[in-house]
């Protein structure tokens, strides 16, 4: 059934296009969420403006008289401005993650802003530790650890400098990403998500003697 396939592909494209239409917004848990409309809106007697949350919840409305009204569950925890339709949701919680749409209703509904909001916690701390230094070659291995994940990198040192063996390694899961990289003589491990980051650093001062292969590594781990 090639026609059916074609229809399915079309449906898929429409769905993904619709998802792309939602602008992603990331906000740190406990911070304020600012949402502004993307198109000019002029209300008349027959039209009202609403901020909607997900498909069935309404945050507030503005009517022709420009008065902004918040509905019960948002009263006291949001600011809503009748003159420019902006919404500020204060002290956001994880429950506030979801789709926010600004709509003008009259004879039909018109969307004037669409956001996919994700509330995130700050990332957890990282530890960077020296996990091995081979005495027979000038290689150092460091491991960067977060609660449930670790990545290791090996550095090759000569009498003056150390360099990363291979690419900067990074690891990303649904929630955050972890990257280890070398900048001058400092190894950085950076744990980040869209709203926060934490790092741990270690200074590698190679005093690798090419004859004996001895390495001295100064750690400066905060
Ligand atoms: C809307 O008005 C409020 C209050 O005057 C202001 O804080 C906010 O920045 C305005 N939003 C835009 C998009 O101008
Ligand atoms: C809102 O929708 C998102 C998915 O888009 C869902 O993950 C979330 O649980 C919903 N929140 C509420 C309070 O219904
Ligand atoms: C040190 O690094 C070199 C690559 O430059 C590699 O061939 C060697 O196996 C490494 N040695 C150790 C002990 O990891
Ligand atoms: C980091 O190191 C400190 C002190 O050694 C330890 O208390 C903490 O649990 C470590 N954190 C992680 C994510 O490994
Ligand atoms: C890194 O994680 C592995 C399991 O994935 C574990 O066996 C190993 O002990 C961890 N290393 C450190 C230094 O935490
Ligand atoms: C060590 O690094 C410095 C600066 O990056 C560079 O000027 C120097 O040539 C390097 N030395 C060696 C032996 O590679
Ligand atoms: C690793 O990342 C650092 C800092 O972002 C950059 O300066 C360096 O060029 C990168 N090295 C490689 C091999 O990607
Ligand atoms: C850590 O990563 C975040 C997100 O990519 C970036 O904004 C920040 O500058 C990085 N910090 C360091 C020290 O690499
Ligand atoms: C804990 C730690 O090492 N923090 C460092 C993160 O990186 C910045 C430089 O980008 C250092 O100033 C911090 O000390």
UniProtKB/TrEMBL annotation:
| Keyword Glycoprotein among record annotations | yes
Give the source species. Oreochromis aureus (Israeli tilapia)
Q: What is its main location?
A: membrane
Identify this protein by name: Immunoglobulin subtype domain-containing protein
Q: Which UniProt keywords apply?
A: Glycoprotein, Membrane, Signal
Protein's cellular compartments: Membrane
Query: What is one term from the GO cellular component aspect held by the record?
Result: membrane
Q: Which PANTHER family match?
A: IMMUNOGLOBULIN V-SET DOMAIN-CONTAINING PROTEIN, SIGNALING LYMPHOCYTIC ACTIVATION MOLECULE
Q: InterPro entries from the xrefs?
A: CD2/SLAM_rcpt (IPR015631), Ig-like_dom_sf (IPR036179), Ig-like_fold (IPR013783)
| SUPFAM superfamilies in alphabetical order | Immunoglobulin
In this entry, which stretches build a coiled coil? none
Q: Which residues form the signal peptide?
A: 1-21
């Amino acid at each position: 059934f090639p026609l059916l396939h074609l229809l399915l592909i079309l449906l898929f494209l429409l769905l993904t296009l619709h998802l792309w239409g939602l602008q992603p917004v990331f906000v740190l848990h406990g911070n304020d969420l600012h949402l502004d409309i993307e198109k000019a809106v002029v209300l008349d007697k027959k039209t009202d403006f609403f901020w909607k949350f997900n498909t069935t919840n309404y945050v507030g409305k503005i009517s022709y008289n420009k008065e902004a009204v918040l509905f019960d569950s948002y009263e006291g925890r949001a600011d809503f401005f009748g003159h420019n339709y902006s919404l500020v949701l204060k002290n956001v919680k994880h429950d506030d993650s979801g789709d926010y749409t600004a709509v003008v209703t009259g004879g039909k509904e018109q969307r004037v802003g669409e956001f996919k909001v994700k509330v995130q916690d700050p990332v957890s701390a990282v530890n960077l530790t020296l996990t091995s230094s081979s005495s027979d070659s000038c290689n150092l291995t460091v491991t960067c650890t977060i609660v449930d994940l670790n990545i290791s990198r090996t550095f090759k040192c000569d009498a003056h400098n150390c360099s990363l063996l291979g690419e900067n390694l990074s690891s990303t899961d649904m929630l955050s990403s972890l990257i280890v990289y070398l900048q001058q003589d400092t190894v950085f491990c950076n744990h980040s998500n869209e709203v926060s980051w934490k790092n741990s650093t270690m200074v590698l001062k190679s005093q690798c003697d090419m004859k004996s292969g001895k390495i001295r590594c100064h750690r400066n781990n905060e």
